[in-house]
Amino acid sequence: MEVTGSSKKMIATQAEMVETRVPLPYRDQCAHLLIPLNKCRQAELYLPWKCENERHKYEKCEYELVMERMLQMEKIREQEAEAKAKQTQKQGSPIPLIPNTANA
Q1: pLDDT at site 16
Q2: Which stretches in the chain have pLDDT values below 50?
Q3: Phi and psi (nearest 5°) for 30?
Q4: N or C end of the chain, less CB within 10 A?
């Protein structure tokens, strides 16, 4: 399944996520790493020093998704700023908010 706006593909299917009871907010492109992590956590009784490799892989995947979204948002902001600059150039000089006084 392809997710729009992301370079990563969905590897885990909806059926797998439902079967392993992955919560809805966590059903993203990293869910295929969360499934074995949760299984490991349950098997090891949630001991914090266990399942470190699985947790690291999952957290790295999530970090990469966040960084990708940040870069996309930065591009959108740059495009909006360029569009706004072009619009103000077409309209001429903007009306100043503070008028010039005789003594200034």
Answers
A1: 96
A2: none
A3: -105, 5
A4: C
For 37, what's the count of Cα atoms within 13 Å in the CB-facing half-sphere? 19
Tokens (6 digits) for 87: 């619009």
Q: Residue 92 has what pLDDT?
A: 65
| 62, 32 Cβ separation under 8 angstroms | no
How does 38-72 read in b/e, with b if 16+ C-beta sit within 10 Å?
bebbeeeeeeeeebeebbebbeebbeebeeeeeee
Q: Report how far Cα 34 is from the mean position of its chain's Cα atoms.
A: 17
Report the alpha-carbon distance of residue 54 to residue 42 in Å, rounded.
13
3-state helix, strand, coil in the chain (%, to 5): 60, 0, 40
Q: Report the C-alpha gap between 28 and 25 in whole angstroms.
A: 8
Residues 6 or more apart from 2 whose CB is under 8 A from it? 9, 10
